[in-house]
Design brief:
- With about 100 residues, this protein is an alpha+beta fold.
- It has one domain.
- Helices cover about 25% and strands about 30% of the residues.
- It contains 3 helices and 6 strands; from the N terminus they run ααββββαββ.
- It has a 6-stranded antiparallel sheet with strand order 1-2-3-4-6-5.
- The longest helix has 15 residues, at about 5-20.
- The chain is globular, with a radius of gyration of 12 Å.
- The protein starts with a helix and ends with a strand.
């Protein structure tokens, strides 16, 4: 629900973060915001997907932007230790982390 209420802000955050991150090879935190508790951008290997991950209310249900639009390209949030819970629109997912 938070994504839809603040869609334009999340899209702008993801877009601007990706353009700033293009030449960086490490994880970077996003600036603080009242929209989320924590957020970061990172590059997944070997897929090279850029992932912007927002912890909105629940660490185990992150809102995730995936540049390749493939949840398998983000190991930590959507695939390796959990899975995609819902595709909100192209490139945007709510993922479910493994609770164990």
């Amino acid at each position: 629900m938070t994504f839809y209420l603040h869609r334009s802000e999340f899209v702008e955050l993801a877009t601007s973060s990706i353009s700033e991150f293009q030449n960086t090879k490490i994880e970077l935190p996003l600036p603080e915001s009242s929209l989320y508790e924590d957020a970061s951008i990172y590059r997944e290997f070997p897929s090279e997907a850029l992932v912007v991950e927002f912890i909105v209310d629940d660490y185990y249900l992150p809102l995730v932007y995936i540049s390749t639009d493939d949840p398998a390209d983000t190991h930590g949030a959507c695939f390796g230790d959990g899975g995609p819970l819902e595709r909100l629109e192209p490139n945007w997912y709510v993922c479910l982390r493994d609770l164990l």
